[in-house]
Amino acid sequence: MHSINKLTLGFATLFATSFSVAVIGAQSSPSTEVKLPAAAAGQYQHTAPTLADIESDSDLHPELRKVILKGRDLFMNTQQLRGEYVFNDLNCKSCHMGEGRMAWSGPVWPAATTLPDFRGKNGHVNSLEERIAGCFSFSMNGKAPEYGSDTMLAISAYHQYMAKGAKMYDKNIAGRGFNHLGNKIPEATSYANGQKVYEENCSVCHGSNGAGTKVDGTVVYPPLWGDGSYNWGAGMTRVFTAASFIQNNMPLGQPGRLSDQEAWDVAYFVNAQERPQDPRYTGDAKETREKYMNFHKATLYGTEVNGAVLGQHDNTGDKPFLKPDVLKPRSFN
Amino acid sequence: MKLTTAILICVTALVVLGIPTMAVADSDRGKQLAMQGDGSGAPCSACHGPNGEGNAAGAFPVIAGLNERYLFRTMQAYQSGTRVNPVMSMNIDNFAEQDLLDLAAYYANLPSPAPAAPSASAEQLALGEKIALQGDWDAYIPPCASCHGPNNQGVNENFPAIAGQHASYIKQQVQAWQQGQRTSDPVQLMEAIAKRLSDEQLDAVAAYLASQPAAQQ
Prior knowledge:
Chain A: Pfam families: Cytochrome_CBB3, SoxA-TsdA_cyt-c. Chain A: Residues 311-333 are annotated as: Disordered. Chain A: Residues 78-196, 189-274 form the Cytochrome c domain. Chain A: This is C-type cytochrome. The structure holds two protein chains of two kinds. Chain A is 38% helix and 5% strand. By secondary structure, chain A is mainly alpha-helical. Among the domains of chain A are: 51-162, Cytochrome c-like domain (Cytochrome Bc1 Complex, Chain D, domain 2, Orthogonal Bundle), CATH 1.10.760; 191-309, Cytochrome c-like domain (Cytochrome Bc1 Complex, Chain D, domain 2, Orthogonal Bundle). In chain A, the strands form three sheets. Chain A has a two-stranded antiparallel ribbon. Chain A has a two-stranded antiparallel sheet with strand order 3-4. In chain A, strands 5-6 form a two-stranded antiparallel ribbon. In chain A, helix 10 crosses helix 11. The longest helix of chain A has 24 residues, at 2-25. Helix content of chain B is 51%, strand content 0%. Chain B folds into two domains: 21-108, Cytochrome c-like domain (Cytochrome Bc1 Complex, Chain D, domain 2); 122-210, Cytochrome c-like domain (Cytochrome Bc1 Complex, Chain D, domain 2). Chain B has helices at 2-18, 27-36, 44-48, 68-80, 86-92, 97-108, 122-133, 145-148, 167-178, 189-194, 199-210. At the A-B interface, helix 1 and strand 4 of A face helix 1 and helix 10 of B.
């Protein structure tokens, strides 16, 4: 009996040890190091102003300061536009982290230094306002505040102030957008491994069902799929965009924790889940995919995953319409 | 034969331990346990006070009104060693799982005490508020509220309320993370940030959080 007890204890210890090793083994790299890509040679870098700068910049007319601060407030808490222009649970800062100032996190100032410019997504020249409208139409599953309106003025003023001192029209910018992993999904990318990476690293905040977490109606951890998240036309549905965002920003506070392949896997997994319809939907997801192939070649929309064609549905989430009027072509012919 | 029996016992134990507890927590019994202790040490109330209000001088945390599951898991962590505190470990090592559930139910249902009067300078509180609500992204420190929820009043069992907590305790715990002595946080979310906080930022944010209400008034 004595020996059994000892043996049992030995086994228990062995199990406990292997368990804790497994848990520690789940992390890909030390969590405290901030591992972000380095700027390539010749790439332009700019340090965007902080809130303290907005508050203390003596060059700003007090009225302009108010407008910029209003824009910042809308950027950080875009849910104040819920039901009017925003129909999901996201804020601008959900994807443009660090107040929209951070390289590798979709810094917003390049929009002010490089636009107006031609944009492949809609095939015409876009102004800063139209670029912001794109975020409202897709990422926020809504519609844009009217061009020239107080709300649009405030948001664009915040973007432009973030570019204070930056060089105009230099498009070779370090940490712009989300594409440092390239735009080709590696062959090894796996839904199953993505799910595993998600459960181990993401679900504690975003939930196993991807629905995020609210406290008393306030969104704390944003939904990654489902009705509360970005729609099928959002840039983040591109697997490469999500992979780069995730690797450089997630889990929160630990950029670079996931390996390149883990980031691809989890981005694939997240973007293989259902979400509100692409506002450009023609009534058939495969057809819509073909029509906007320059965009959807990077998404799983209109393709079959786990036995169903993604995006083949009429669900627009909480948004009571499909396509906002602002999504229209522009031509100078 | 002996080996087979041993493996069987082992597997059975794992299966039993792995099944989620369906037991109902009894906060009245938790109250009794809080006053009498685990039989071999001081009762909870000796350090955490008669109403779970803690003690700032001793860095004993407020436990009244915290998330029930968080309290339960914290006590488990002290038993298993993923959180280390000689006093806590010694005083709760004899509690059974049901005891911990009952204690968690008791303390979670007590009202949160009013926050302490600010003990820091206005300048320090302003810095603390900045860390708590805006963060210091240039040092890659996201705001506390991005995980601990609106007004830092807590979200769930993984992200407890930190508003209204004693500054001495917040500081002690962040230092525990900095020194690798606290490892019970999921995905090392807190460890990563704790290690980037400067002493000045830590003092300020601890003082600010202590001055804030623990729950909506």
